[in-house]
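Pilot study result, target chain (748 residues):
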Amino acid sequence: MKLLHLFLMVLLCTGFVTVFAQEHEHDDHTVRGKVTDEQNKALVGALIYWGHNHGETIITDEHGEFSIPKHHNGDYLYANYVGYSTDSIIINEHDHYVVFKLQSGIELDEVVVSHREKSTVSSSLKPIHTLEIAESELHKAACCNLSESFETTPSVDVTFTDAITGTKQIQMLGLSGSYVQFTRENIPAIRGLATVYGLQFIPGTWIREIHLNKGTGSVINGFESITGQIDIQLYEPKDIETVYVNLFSSESGRTEVNIHAKKAFSDSWSTALLLHGRTQKTKQDNNDDNFLDIPLGNQLIGINRWEYQGIEDMHIQFGIKGTYLSQIGGERDYSPSQIHNITNPWGMNTYITRGDAWMKIGKTFHDRAWESIGFQSSFSFHNQESQYGLQSYTGDELSGYANLIFQGASESEKHKYNTGLSFQYDRIDETFNDQPFLYDESVPGIFSEHTYIPGKKLTIVSGLRGDFHSIYGGFITPRLHIRYKPNSDYVIRMSLGRGQRTARVFAENNNLMASSRLFLIHSENNETPYGLEPEIAWNVGANITRYFSLWNRKGSITLDAYRTLFQEQVIIDYVQDQYAVHVYNLEGTSFSNSVQTQIDYELVHNLDIRMAYRWYDVQSTYNGELQKKPFVSEHRAFTNLAYTTESDWSFDYTVQWHGSKHAPLAQSSMEQIDTDKNSPDFFTMNAQVTKTWNDKLDIYVGAENLLNYVQENPIFSASQPYSSEFDASQIWGPVFGREVYAGLRYTF
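Predicted structure:
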């Protein structure tokens, strides 16, 4: 590890020295620049050439930028783009960078170019393999919140946490979602006490796009990414119509309303209001175990965001968000007003109040378009009060975040760099069964990231950040990403990096409170959170994508493999003891191996198929013995079919095969524990039909879990909920059967 750190530091330093030297050495033989329209939008494919036919014609790149050899002083440099007036600039001896702003003024006959955009794409230009999941992909299913947004994405597993709360969680690379870094427009968003419930706090209709990458991400976004990063791009004022309404209802009694509205006050200032309401009033107990399958409750969320696009290339965004959640579950006769004791029905209730605020400021430079400076900041408070039978939990959290980023490039654009400062603060005050846990964490950091592009085929991104944790001390986070594109048919990527995070024992495992188990934390250091060490892991991965054309239709095959190896880990052990959850630092080996292959292809016109197969090998050391991690499918297969007609009907169908999972306690009687027991394999199917009118109104009808497959007896000792055998957390399959839903989307 020390040699790896030294290698990356030398690589970074070498790159930065090169950048510094090139930044201070003008190239007198080249003119660089950018071509935009009147709204400063980059014009891709504009023609750049000298007057009197001097030299070759240059075409602007995907950023509207160009570089052209210089000719005699006083020559005219021209920019031409279809539909715009040609412009020219006299280039003198000291002119090294120019900006063309073309005026629209050439009237053309109408030309219609038809192109059907894919709902999920991956750019071959990015050094990190990133899936860009568009709004149209989210519309394929009942995407009511972020936890339900990945039903058609094979890289992410969506499972229930327990049979009481109805909460869904995600897994990536075989590990829980707590090892994924969630960001909202590149600002850390779902972490700390909101790690599990926070997925419900982002309604699906608010999401414009999701960027998903496996493995460690960029050092710009912090040090916590271990198995991947999911960045959620919400709708900005410029993206939405004046008013948008979404209504949703299901046969289980779940009703949701979403409203978006925007207002433009001037060419510079605009605002958007996004509102979400959800209610569940109908009691459901389809398996007749006397427990509600879905908790009752309400949820209210609202965002007000503002955007300023001003003069001198200044861009400002800021906003506030408020969240309220109430959940009531347990036995059918439970009332939250009752006293929690063994003479009354067993019940669960959770109340969460949360507030968020954030700001982003960006500044580019008219005469140095390759440089920019940005500042990100956010603040949040989170309050949670929960009761699970006789177990109680309260948690309060205050968090603050700041990130200052400077971006630049060399004259040749072979070298690009980002450098900056960051600060993260968390104050967490928890009480579990009257036992307090209170700690403060502050982490100032500095980072640098260097991108080397020697040609179109190769890109190397090396990053390094140093942080000082107020409790755990200083540490270094290196990251390396390599992209190689030998030709137009193949893209090969490799990644390596380190991640570190502080485990939130109770917030990340509140599903285990839906049981009679005791929490036994084996503390080793009274000065650290819960007396435990931080979680530290290394992730290495490779990805290869092959683009092909078959029967004049394009497709792609992707194969990736990742290994996550833990140097330190907080083990949540509910395997060795049927009556307790043991929490301790890793002593031994813990790893996750993941291999996945995926095919995307257009079978016939407007009919897309996505097929995937994934294999996991996830093991940890429990009580001195290396064992498979419970409730992780070793094998999984996935197929999604999406068909759109010329009359605007859309049909979507997804089928998944879930291989058996290691489920040592998954049996109706807990008198004897069979540690070799595995769950059965099973299939799940989802389908949806959507009709669109005039791009204004969508009406959709669908069903989840069409086969009505559910886990038998998901709650141990449901008839005796106050006994020591009661446990609703051993979940390997669906806990709710077939769910039919309908809804509409209307844009005013």
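One observation from the pilot: The chain has three domains: 2-101, 120-231, 232-443+454-747. A full batch analysis is planned for the follow-on phase.
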